[in-house]
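We include this case.
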Amino acid sequence: MTLPLIAIDGPAGVGKTSTACTVASRLGIPFLDTGAMYRAVTWVVTKNGVNVTDVNSINRLIARTQFEFAQGLRGVHFWVNGEEITDQLRTPEITRAVTPVCEVHDVRVYLVNLQRKWVARGFGVMEGRDIGTVVLPKAELKIFMTAKPEIRALRRAKELGIADDEKAVAKLSKEIAERDRRDMEREDSPLRQANDAITLDNTEMSFDEQVNKVILMAAEQFSLNLYTAVRPVG
């Protein structure tokens, strides 16, 4: 049996993080949320009042900041200069600011280097937007998750507790579409599906169904025992 190294990519709001975290937990291997790494950098940028388009100031700030991350019971935890910021990374403010920060070349180089060091052990689940194409181009299992934009917006709205607000959901849908556009059109590591990645469209899937689907893919690829990994769907 080969220990799994799984790369999961996809656009915003498609459920990469929750799926990857659950898959890793059931398979008993580490998980890294690379999107949260970019959010951690964005947190530092906004906390210090730096304009998200001021590339030089962002680069200077990152050079003097210490970032740490470690696996926890509820996923990956993040620290900046010794302060844990895990619970501060999913705010609307960070979500609005993260895309331009992701486009800063030196930020991407810095974080990709950290990501490659993390995976030097040779196994784990890593999710993001450029994992299969840039970070782990030799991963034996690459999955590209996708879903219709309106479904992604509704799921995000449910997470935020605003699913009954049609205007708020419409705004979320517009923001997701704009983020998709920027992610796909950026020059540095754009969002795209690796040629050897398997498409997983979860538009009509429940969470348990998509988790089980990924685990079954991993079982086939890496000759895994499924008895404790696949859960009944209900």
Observations:
- The chain has one domain: 5-219.
- The beta strands are 5-9, 31-33, 67-72, 75-80, 83-84, 124-128, 141-146, 198-201.
- The chain has a mean pLDDT of 91.
- Residues 86 and 204 are 30 Å apart (CA to CA).
